[in-house]
Structure formats: structure tokens, C-alpha cells
């Protein structure tokens, strides 16, 4: 039997769903399978054929409008005019690699580094988050002299050889590296009554000791600070600091994977890690940075970076190219000029409050948690035992798709709806989402 992974196969179209499709959709799925092979996955039992996007909305080939509550790639909104204009203007002038002088990469570096802690003062650029995390791991190795990397049990950090070997969310079909060690995720919902910060720090101590007992030297801890693949686990602001102190006490570095919580999404701060009053040694960024243009980056403390860069040249042909830098600059400017961090906090709080009202109506809603426009909506079959209800979560996701609301699931049990809309999401959109969720739960479980 084929191995199924958590992050790729959950909420995905499979061959047994083909009989339910209309002829045009079935032709497209058949052609896709033939041309693209078997590794790719589509969302939904009835895949969505999208042809247009604007802000927080998407349209399919039939002209039906959808509310996007999932995509952080188009972080400031699909087809944002500022990004389109910046990319178009730069493409008419020049696009080449970083071995020639150009102002765009320098201007952006100064601008983005002004948002990071003062100790973070160096920048490097790639095309994907996977490449950024791959380089971060290489830097951790060079800084520490070790190879052991700790990640959480359902984390996802990329698709390169190094990063896929540290991405348990890819499932049992993807072998983890022998130098990757898994730590339990800080799930406050299931650790009620625990001091989450002290609990997580103890887990870190135990895992480092286990690693060293096996003769592997500790290099670092890599995490996205909202633990999105682990089920969206924001926790109380500040709880991460004791664990990061442990990391540093043992000579490792903290790699803050900000692909998902960064760029104003959590509302409380521009960067996800900043909610916890900590300074990472390396920050990695990707998807939201260019609003869909392939660009990623790595920002680091100069001495940490030097442990790698003073010895090994690095070149990425299109990492940091002028067109990508123009897109990234436009995104940063929009976030700052349109006050999207404050917007994320304000609208996110309103959305969180409205979603929590569904707990009073539906016994199957076990927990609703989040920070800014990043919310986890957890479904259970029994509130007392907190038994995960994966099937209900998948069925709700499909019902939402029929009501033209797009999202997906996360977490080790696959029972958490990951509600992560573009930052263009507005107060007026809350009713569409909450009503669709309410109706879906009522149809599937009753009041």
C-alpha cells in the first residue's frame, strides 16, 4: 500500500474521487496525472479550477467567486497592483544575477534588516523557503561544529535533501535524517495546567541529552514560532524564551523559520518570533516575501553567518535578482504604508472572537486559538477527552469548498482547520467565513 503523508495527502484529491467529477474537470485531472506524474497533489475531492485572483478573493473557470482563507503566498492579496507595477517596471529594465552591482538588493536589505533585531545584520537571498532553510542548516553546522537539528514532531521546513530530512510533516514515506531529532509540539490545549514555557524547555533539555548520548553534537533548533504544521499553536506570548535559552546554553543556534508567521501576519509583531521577546540567530523567509514571486531570504547575526560565509562562497543564480527584489520591496512598502500589522491584529481579533461563538453552539469545536490572521480551529469528537475528529475536519473542509470558502487542515491528527487568509482579508469577510463554518457543522453534526 502506498504511504500517505500528513501535509500532502490530507485534504487531497485521489483517483477514487474521479467518478464524481464533471467531464471537463476529469479531463484536466487525467491530463495532469499523465503529464505531471504521481508526486503532485490537488486539494479537495472535487478540485477547484482557479483562473483569477484579486485581494482575498479567487474565481474559478465558471466565474464563481471564492473567499481565500488559506493562502499566505499572496500575503498582501492576490494580484496586488503595487507588486504588479514594481515587477513590470523592473522587467522592462533588467533581470540578472547577483554577481553584478545593483541597487535593488541593497535597498531591500537595508529596509528589511531595519525590521529585525539589531544583532541581525546580514542578508542572503534564494528563490524558495526550502533553499533558505537548507542554507540555515548548513550555517548551524558550521557555527556549532555539530550536525544535530531539533524540530517539532509535525513540522515542515522544505523539500531539499537537508530540509526534507528535517520535515516530519512529509510523512513516513520521507525518511528523516539520522541527525534530526523530534521534540513534542507545545500544544497548550492538550497541556492544560502546565507552564508551557518550562515544559517546552524541559523537552529541549531532554532531547539535546538524548542526541548527545548517541554521539551526535547539537547544532540547533529550527521552528516556526506559531507551529503551524503542528496545528497552529501560538501559545502565550513569551513562552518560547526558556527553550531558546536552553538552545544557546548548549552551543546551538535558533533558526526562526518565518515563512508562515512573519511579515505582520500574527499582528502582535512584524515577525512571529518577536511575540516571544527572543532574538534568533538566523531568520528564514520565503513565500509571503514576494507575494507570489519566487523569492526567499536568510537574515543572520554577522558572526553566525561568518562561520559559513568566511569559508564557503555561496551563489544562487536567481536569488536576489532585481525583479524579485522589486516585488519584495513593494510587499514591504505595502505592509508598512497600509498598516497591515495593525490590521492583522484588529481583524484577526474580531475573527477569533466570532469563531469562538461557534464553541457555544457546536460541541465538536474543541478549541479556537490564534494570533492575528493565523487561527487554528480544532474539531473533536469528545470535548472531555479532546479526541481529535479528523474525518469531521476533512468533511467540513469539503463543505466549505462547496460554500466557496477555501482552507485546509493541519496538526498531527489532521483535525485543525488552518485559517490563514491573505492580509487583505477584511471585517466584511468574517460573516461569510463564520456563517459557512456554522452551516457546515450544522449540516454534518447538527446543533
Automatic annotation (TrEMBL):
Enzyme category, top tier: transferase
SUPFAM superfamilies tied to this protein: PLP-dependent transferases (SSF53383)
PANTHER family in the record: ALANINE--GLYOXYLATE AMINOTRANSFERASE 2-LIKE (PTHR45688:SF13), PTHR45688
Cofactor: pyridoxal 5'-phosphate
Its EC number(s): 2.6.1.48
Organism listed in the record: Vibrio aerogenes CECT 7868
GO molecular function: 5-aminovalerate transaminase activity; pyridoxal phosphate binding
Superkingdom of source: Bacteria
Keywords: Aminotransferase, Pyridoxal phosphate, Transferase
Name the UniProt record assigns to this protein: 5-aminovalerate aminotransferase DavT
Family classification: Belongs to the class-III pyridoxal-phosphate-dependent aminotransferase family.
